[in-house]
Structures are given as structure tokens and as C-alpha cells.
Amino acid sequence: MIPPPSDALAVLQTASAAIGAHFAQAAVAGSGKSMELLGNDQKNKEIAVLVRGQLCTALSRVLLHGFKSFKLIGRYHIWDFVQHACEATHERLKRTGANYSAAERTMTDAVVEVNSTGVEGPANNPNIKFRSFVCSGLNNGLLHEWVAVLTADAETMSKFYESWAFVRSSEQALPQMMDAIRPLADYKYTLSLDYETSRWDLH
């Protein structure tokens, strides 16, 4: 059963706060932990657990509220929505002749990069691709702005979401999501996009 939006949003806020508390270790005298170390998943396993194990799960819970997963053959995954939103961004900018914003450019580049990490085995798992996408958003310091880009196209939102879905339910929905994860942009991350295909240890 999908939790109500208020509960899902609270979980996202908690996951974001946990990452903030993780980076706060750098300010503890004698900890010997720098911000760079705490944000590097090759040197600090905890950040991988907090991001891939908690933040990504929390963000997907919000995005899956009212998500239209069923299609004629098979089911849609949240990664299908991300890719479609990326294509819609390209089409909109081509149609209007506008320049890419930093968020639009880095987000669309990230989708290409994530899809290029592999087409077989674990690398082709849409769950892993979504988590790697979130990691890229953190690396770029623009995850909160990526959420705005993802939900900008009305046709894409109508295709993938019910009218009562949290992301379409009110004008406050998007700002609430962005506010929950905006503080994460204050930290420096070095998160590997192939983390789960090179090591399966998030416990």
C-alpha cells in the first residue's frame, strides 16, 4: 500500500536530515573526518547507505504516489518517467529555441550517462539506474532543481501520474519536495554511478 503523501514527504525530510547529520561529523573536534571524506562513497560507506538506501527510497515513495505503472504491455517504472521527462525537456527547448539551464543540461546529461553504464545484468536494472541518477544529482548539487525539471512538462505528468498524485495535487507539492532536499546542495559529494554494479553492499 502506497503511503499518503504527508507520510512520504516526512520520510523524505527525515532522509535529508540524516545526510545533514552525517556531514555534521566534520565539525566535531577530533573526528578526523572532512566534508570531502564524508561525501565520498569509495572512502565512506555510510554515505552510500544514506543516499542509495534511504534518500533514494524516500524520494521514490513521493514520486510513486499516484504513479500510473500499468501500460498495455508490461509496467512503467519511475525510470521510464525520468527518461520521458528528459526527452520532453529536449523537445521543449528545441521548440522554443531557449538555452539549457544548468539543471536542464546536467539532468539530461546524467540520463545519458546512467544509461551508458551498461545494458546487461545489474547495470540495466531500472531501480539501480534511478538511484545512480539521484547520486548524479547530488554530485552536481542540483537534485532539488532536477525535481522541478522532471515535473515541468504537463503532458508527461498527465501520462505518468493520476490527477490526485501528490506531485500534481497542489501548487505546494513541488515546493515542498524541493524544500525537503534543497539543504543537500550544501554538501560536496563524490558518489560513484556504478557503485551497485561494482559492489553489492548497502547494509
Shape: globular
Extended strand count:
0
First-residue to last-residue Cα separation: 25 Å
Mean pLDDT: 91
Structural class: mainly alpha
Q: Which H/E pattern describes the elements? A: HHHHHHHHHHH
Strand content: under 5%
Biggest sheet, open or closed, and with what strands and sense? none
* Approximate helicity band: 55-70%
Radius of gyration: 17 Å
Number of helices: 11
Flag low-confidence runs: none
What keywords describe this structure?
203 residues, globular, mainly alpha
Description:
There is one protein chain. The chain is 60% helix and 0% strand. It has helices at 5-23, 35-38, 45-63, 78-96, 102-115, 126-139, 143-150, 154-160, 166-169, 173-181, 195-198. With 203 residues, it is an all-alpha fold.
Task: Please outline the helices and strands.
Elements: H1 5-23, H2 35-38, H3 45-63, H4 78-96, H5 102-115, H6 126-139, H7 143-150, H8 154-160, H9 166-169, H10 173-181, H11 195-198
Q: Can you describe this structure in just a few lines?
A:
The protein is mainly alpha-helical and about 200 residues long. Helices cover about 60% and strands about 0% of the residues.
